[in-house]
Amino acid sequence: MMRAMLSTSFTKNKKNKHFIKNFNKKTKNYIHNRHIICIMKIVETWRLFFQFCFLSSGGTGGAIRGGSTI
């Protein structure tokens, strides 16, 4: 009886450890992906900003078009 209880608790712990490992992996991937998305958003914003500045200094038609993209 005692041995059976010990073995079941041990397998439960193993499953939990596996779950925690997977969970950590998933959260790390999620954080990594969020980081990449954040960088991409910043780059995109800067690109639009520079495009807007460049177009507004270049010509009036371009400035209006550039202004609407932001």
TrEMBL record:
This is Uncharacterized protein.
